Amino acid sequence: MTETRGKKIQPIRTKMPELAPEKRRLVFDEVNCGFDITMAHQEAERCLFCKKPLCMQGCPVAINIPMFIKNIVEGNMLEAYHVLKASNPLPAVCGRVCPQEIQCEQKCIVGKKGEPVAIGHLERFVGDWAIEQGIKSEKPESDLSIGKKVAIVGSGPAGIACAHDLARAGLAVTIFEGLHEAGGVLSYGIPPFRLSRKVISEEIKSLKSMGVKIEFNKVIGKIFSIQQLLTEKGFSAVFIGTGAGLPKFMGIPGEYLNGVMSSNEFLTRVNLMDGFNHADTPVGMGSRVAVIGAGNTALDTARTALRMGAEEVVIVYRRTQNESPARAEELRHATEEGIRFSWLTNPIALHGDVDGNVTEMECMRMELGEPDASGRRSPQAVPGSEFRIKADTVVYGLGTVTNPIISRSTPEIKTNKWGYLEVDPTTQMTSMPGVFAGGDIVTGAATVILALGAGRRAASGILKYLGLVKEEAANGVTVS
Amino acid sequence: MGTLRPMAFSIFRKQIFSPTTFLWEVEAPDMAAAAHPGQFVMLRLHEGGERIPLTVADFDRDRGTITMVVKVVGKTTEEMATYLEGDTFQDFIGPLGAPTHIAQKGHVVFVGGGLGVAPIYPVLRAFKKMGNRTTTIVGFRNEQEIFWKDRFEEFSDNLIVMTDDGSVGKKGTTADALKDVLETGVNIDEVFTVGPLGMMEVIAELTRSKKIPTFASMNSIMVDGIGMCGSCRVTVDGNVLFACVDGPDMDAHKVDFKEMKIRQKRFRNEEGVLLQKYHTECRAQTKGVSA
Ligand SMILES: Cc1cc2nc3c(=O)[nH]c(=O)nc-3n(C[C@H](O)[C@H](O)[C@H](O)COP(=O)(O)OP(=O)(O)OC[C@H]3O[C@@H](n4cnc5c(N)ncnc54)[C@H](O)[C@@H]3O)c2cc1C
Ligand SMILES: Cc1cc2nc3c(=O)[nH]c(=O)nc-3n(C[C@H](O)[C@H](O)[C@H](O)COP(=O)(O)OP(=O)(O)OC[C@H]3O[C@@H](n4cnc5c(N)ncnc54)[C@H](O)[C@@H]3O)c2cc1C
Ligand code: SF4
Ligand code: SF4
Ligand code: FES
């Protein structure tokens, strides 16, 4: 036991029950099974309920962490849920996918001497409890709406958060979603073994129960322009949460070969198009899969490939594990499942057979050089270190560039040099009056919680723009 | 995940052109109002279905409909062929892609073959209405497969019908016809082509040396059609472009057709398996009904 401010603290956190690696390698069931009530209490007891909670500084939406944990300890689950919901519309999601180890948990004081409080696991526990209890988001508190409706473009985390807050404030909200499912990356990107489909569908149901309408298969910028939404369609404001866009390739020889695709494509074929149920959309995966990159996207790809029946999956990354931007838990899970990692390795060409199918990936060994301006040590190729990896499927998990549909159809909206939409950082309003934006389409590929935060900030910006709140609700955390 | 939603779209009119070609006119007023020549739509028949891209072969803003002409090539298109007038399906998305750039060019030649015949029509009509002189070359297998001859005639100063067997029009390929037109020495300001990759490649080669601007509608394999997955990528002049957002029209002289032809076969094996499975299930079902 460690003594911290007079309280005896278990240095080791409560273990999250997991499906054993050999059991989970071939199924899409969630790997983390969730705390039961005893585990949740045991873990909640490790919190010191700090007066000046450092953990809150690490949370991008400043959840009142000690307060929600205290409510778990005291058995007030509903209250714990309300505390979470006051800052985060999707606790069950963030509890699962936030990179806690570099956010809230990194700052936790208990982490100075032992393992930090498992804030994410506890958040998930409360979120799941609310889903099981069938607790829906509250109905509109007020009747501000008279004559005002708002359009949300995209049903990812940013759009969901914005819709949630606006609906709570009593506005009529319609989400336009280009695909046939809601959730954005949550449903087509992040695989079910990390985020069960039930969690997403329950959150969407809850949104609908607040009166939010979702129109599927409506690509804004194509079927209706932003301008049309504001005029003909009678919306008083528009929020754009269309997410990041097109996948990046490297431009090395052989990328056109069959069996070469992006993580977005692979994951969409499997998740959105039901590839794991062997539905009508082919997936195009072979038995030896090489994944380029080591972020969340790449790891999700590798682990999905394994579950789709690949015999061998290797992750190829030009830096080391230390520089991998993936969540620590994901790296551990992937390793346990038998994913191979080839660190300090950079692909330089892809080779194929006479039919144009990829067969090999040619790589160079890398070494880390001196730190550059950003402080990162940049990898350099080791001369003469070329070698080949056999692969019949090569998937690029290298991140994305912007989706051009909105910006091309709406020249009024200013973009930055990378094509992302420019916004006022306090209100999230773009250069087009009444049009707001947030999430990956503004920041480039980031995280769920940052998108949620931006969506909430935009909601308060919209309320202010519409003259529905007097005070500046600047940080989006407290929407009046 | 299967958010169960009502079957939202209904087939307003179905017309059968041949055993493998048919037309669907679908009620979708908002889509019809927004559609422009050269764009495409996507549809998904039901939960678990594939999202397939189809060119807008016509749109009627007054009636509020979108028309597509479909060629049966695999599971989804074969299943579509079994749908009847009044039947409903799940998802209909569009218009997608960038509209064809329509302008006063002078003399424009349209070349359509295979599943590219119908997509020529709205583009031809728009160019004609803009005051261009139009020559239209359409290719069919035989007389039985011909459709919309009257429609093409209406907007073409010169309509050339080609058939593989010479049962109607001239015997030969669309490329043979374009060669003939080129040989007459007539001035051509632009060529627009839709059809099988091999055909479009030959057309591009014919116009390259004469430096006639030539645009081809790239039917690369798609998934989302909204610029997210990268499935539809095409190499154009050494750069990666995406047919669903940057196209479908691309500069035919710069497209890497060799790569495209390889990529078009990406899922050949799986598609074959799916079709087989569909046939088996169908037969099982029919048996069930008759028993
Ligand atoms: C594979 C993968 C794994 C990830 N893992 C994590 C993780 O573990 N933790 C984490 O925090 N983050 C993770 N991320 C990042 C995170 O998912 C994103 O940062 C977040 O989803 C961004 O939210 P968003 O609302 O901005 O956009 P998105 O989630 O991308 O949603 C945008 C939505 O808008 C729709 N849309 C696009 N254009 C239009 C249009 N013109 N009209 C109508 N609708 C449109 C799209 O179809 C989509 O549904 C991951 C990302 C990927 C790809
Ligand atoms: C922009 C665009 C416009 C198109 N317009 C038309 C049209 O007007 N009429 C028409 O009949 N067809 C059109 N196509 C092609 C049509 O989408 C395919 O024939 C259809 O997807 C085949 O599905 P399937 O399940 O029946 O056959 P599958 O068994 O899936 O495929 C058979 C063959 O069709 C091609 N194909 C398969 N999937 C796709 C896909 N998602 N996108 C493109 N090609 C594919 C491949 O070459 C494949 O080998 C268009 C394609 C694109 C990209
Ligand atoms: S939202 Fe994310 S960062 Fe904030 S407390 Fe929850 S897990 Fe931590
Ligand atoms: S810093 Fe750690 S111990 Fe303190 S309140 Fe936050 S979670 Fe609890
Ligand atoms: S089809 Fe997915 S990016 Fe074009």
Keywords:
heterodimer; A: 480 residues; alpha/beta; Fumarate Reductase Iron-sulfur Protein, Chain B, domain 2; FAD/NAD(P)-binding domain; 3 domains; 5-stranded parallel β-sheet; B: 291 residues; Elongation Factor Tu (Ef-tu), domain 3; 7-stranded mixed β-sheet; 5-stranded antiparallel β-sheet; 8 helices; 17 strands; binds flavin-adenine dinucleotide; binds iron/sulfur cluster; binds FE2/S2 (inorganic) cluster
Condensed summary:
The complex is a heterodimer of chains A (about 475) and B (about 290). In chain A, helix 15 links the parallel strand 9 and strand 10.
Describe the fold and architecture:
The complex is a heterodimer of chains A (480) and B (291). Chain A is 32% helix and 16% strand. Chain A is built from 18 helices and 16 strands. In chain A, strand 8, helix 14 and strand 9 form a beta-alpha-beta unit. Chain B has 291 residues and is α/β, with parallel strands linked by helices. In chain B, the strands form four sheets. In chain B, strands 12-11-10-9-13-14-17 form a seven-stranded mixed beta sheet, sandwiched between helices. In chain B, strand 3 and strand 4 form a beta hairpin. In chain B, helix 5 packs parallel to helix 6. Chain B is globular. The interface between A and B is large, with 49 and 45 residues. The complex binds flavin-adenine dinucleotide (2 copies), iron/sulfur cluster (2 copies) and FE2/S2 (inorganic) cluster. The site of one iron/sulfur cluster (SF4) has 14 residues of chain A, from helix 3 and helix 4.
